[in-house]
Design a protein that fits this description.
single chain; 379 residues; Thrombin, subunit H; Pdz3 Domain; six-stranded antiparallel beta barrel; six-stranded antiparallel β-barrel
């Protein structure tokens, strides 16, 4: 099974694939948020949220030259394999979500990566240029600002992704294959998906709502019409819909968005440890005395963990009273805490038993170079 993230930004070379015609939907008056699933609630929610989702077109390139290694032209699975990308301007289409009446749009970082020009298409046909406020490739999120004279916008309300239940009905809204705005329905198949190797920081909502190329950056909403996720990737052997899609939860996306707006970048907390998830096998083999948590495999000398007294073999079971069930949960939790903050770590030590230590978090270093985790066919 392959994980396709960049495929969700449907890419075409100018002159080879035209822009999809925008689907127009007549929007009626606002409806009260449904409290339960009824025959009428799905259309009601779709009508209320479709104006909040936009199509994003980006262009880049021209004069890429013979040294270009763009997988769109070099991947044997690409329909344009072997063609010279040298003088072709490349176009990409994705989706985004209006989050403020002043024109801020939340989308995936990979949708706008490397773009020279960004055009946002509203539901009523209005086209507006946009600039990048900030992007966080490590979580695959970006914030855009619409420019020019803005019409009356309909920002979406954020929901609480932590409150989602397995089996809850959700809608995915976006611009698949560039054909225009589309709404699909599914359920929450799983929560807290991590360790997928898609992003550096993962806590995905898994859904079977149809997500296809071009849906990247689009909305996953609950039946109250609230944004509970940003669609970002699919698991598929073919690169198309196979019933497994992933969305960045709103409770992760919103604080990252706020930081990008305020500071233009995301600053993450840093503990200075290498860690491994405690499994029943590891717990038995290492005689840990605990069946869940994040085991310290290595401690950075003079780092925050070392200064707090953590050593190899310690198991972190909670941060500030919040349970840690895996190494990914620990990484995500630490990353979302401001550097300089002192946290309480509940630790099970091999020799000393349970203890609570205080650690003052440092600042996560910037990666030296971008790590390409995915086999790319597009941007």
């Amino acid at each position: 099974m392959k994980f396709h993230r960049n495929l969700l930004a449907a890419v075409a070379a100018v002159g080879l694939v035209g822009t999809g015609a925008a689907l127009r939907t007549e929007i009626g008056p606002a409806h009260a948020a449904p409290s339960s699933l009824t025959d009428a609630s799905i259309p009601d929610v779709a009508e209320r949220v479709v104006d909040s989702v936009v199509n994003i077109s980006t262009s880049r390139g021209g004069n890429a030259g013979p040294a270009s290694y763009d997988p769109f032209f070099t991947d044997p699975d690409s329909p344009f394999y072997g063609m010279d990308p040298g003088m072709r301007k490349q176009m990409s289409k994705g989706s985004g979500v209006i989050v403020t009446s002043s024109g801020r749009v939340l989308t995936n970082a990979h949708v706008i990566k490397g773009a020279d020009d960004i055009i946002v298409h509203l539901q009523d046909g209005t086209e507006l240029a946009a600039k990048v406020v900030g992007a966080d490739p490590r979580a695959d999120l970006a914030v855009l600002q619409l420019e020019g004279k803005l019409p009356a916008l309909k920002p979406i309300a954020f929901g609480d992704s932590n409150a989602l239940r397995l089996g809850e009905v959700v809608l995915a809204v976006g611009d698949p294959f560039g054909v225009g705005k589309s709404v699909t329905m599914g359920i929450v198949s799983a929560k807290g998906r991590s360790g997928m190797g898609i992003e550096d920081y993962e806590d995905f909502i898994q859904t079977d709502a149809a997500i296809n190329p071009g849906n990247s950056g689009g909305a996953l909403v609950n039946l109250r019409g609230e944004l509970i996720g940003i669609n970002t990737a699919i698991a598929s052997k073919s690169g198309g819909y196979a019933g497994i899609g992933f969305a960045i939860p709103s409770n992760m996306a919103r604080p990252i968005m706020d930081m990008l707006v305020k500071e233009g970048k995301v600053v993450r907390g840093y503990l200075g440890v290498n860690i491994a998830t405690v499994t029943p096998a590891i717990a038995k083999d290492q005689k840990l005395g605990v069946s869940r948590g994040a085991m310290v495999a290595d401690v950075e000398p003079d780092g925050p963990a070392a200064k707090a007294g953590l050593v190899e073999g310690d198991v972190i079971t909670a941060i500030n009273g919040n349970a840690i069930r895996s190494s990914d949960v620990l990484r995500n939790t630490i990353a979302m805490i401001r550097p300089g903050t002192t946290v309480d770590l509940e630790v099970v030590a091999r020799t000393a038993g349970k203890k609570t230590v205080k650690a003052k978090l440092g600042t996560l270093p910037e990666p030296k170079a971008e790590t390409v985790r995915l086999r790319r066919r597009g941007r």
